[in-house]
Amino acid sequence: MAETGNSSKSPDQVFTSADRIRQLNEIDKDVAKLIHSAGLAIQALTNTRTTDSPQEDNSLASHKTRFKEATSQYFALLSSIDVRLRRQVYAFEEAGILAPETAATATNPRTGELAGAAAAAAAASSNPLDISWLNSRKDTVGKDKEAELWAAAREFAEQLTLHKPSSALAGQEAKPEDEREDMDVD
């Protein structure tokens, strides 16, 4: 699992599991920065003012500058994350955790489908880290949560029907509809 190109370790240095986890944690933090820079780029395309500096220039040139800075940061982070994730994948392949991707098992980048005979081979052998395999293991979490929410809603509705309305609610029901106060929506 030697990694080259990292200034903190020599080219023939072996990275420990803790080093790999630390690197993945740094990548995770950069993904949050990536999303933030994407948000800044989108915000630069709008006329909304940021909370950081309400006196900022709202001219077209200012918007263009902020957009260019945010997109530049976005693509730099995206490239960095891509390179570091590829290094992690190579490390997993070297450790035997992931099978190396070959031309026969490569996916078509346009359609996302596996190449010819590779589809049958991939279906026969499942990777323990494959997301679709992990997701197919148990699908009751969402159903359990939905049932829990429906039970809580039913209990709440029963409490409303069993208890007499409070004086605040009773006062609103007594008013004609045209005299009721409407809620302002922003």
Automatic annotation (TrEMBL):
Quaternary context: Component of the Mediator complex.
Function recorded in the entry: Component of the Mediator complex, a coactivator involved in the regulated transcription of nearly all RNA polymerase II-dependent genes. Mediator functions as a bridge to convey information from gene-specific regulatory proteins to the basal RNA polymerase II transcription machinery. Mediator is recruited to promoters by direct interactions with regulatory proteins and serves as a scaffold for the assembly of a functional pre-initiation complex with RNA polymerase II and the general transcription factors.
GO BP terms: regulation of transcription by RNA polymerase II
Region span, Disordered: 163-186
Keyword Transcription: yes
One GO MF term: transcription coregulator activity
Coarse class of the protein's main subcellular location: nucleus
GO CC entries: mediator complex
Keywords carried by this UniProt record: Activator, Nucleus, Transcription, Transcription regulation
Name listed for the protein in its UniProt record: Mediator of RNA polymerase II transcription subunit 11
Designated gene of the protein: MED11
Superkingdom of the source species: Eukaryota
Record localization: Nucleus
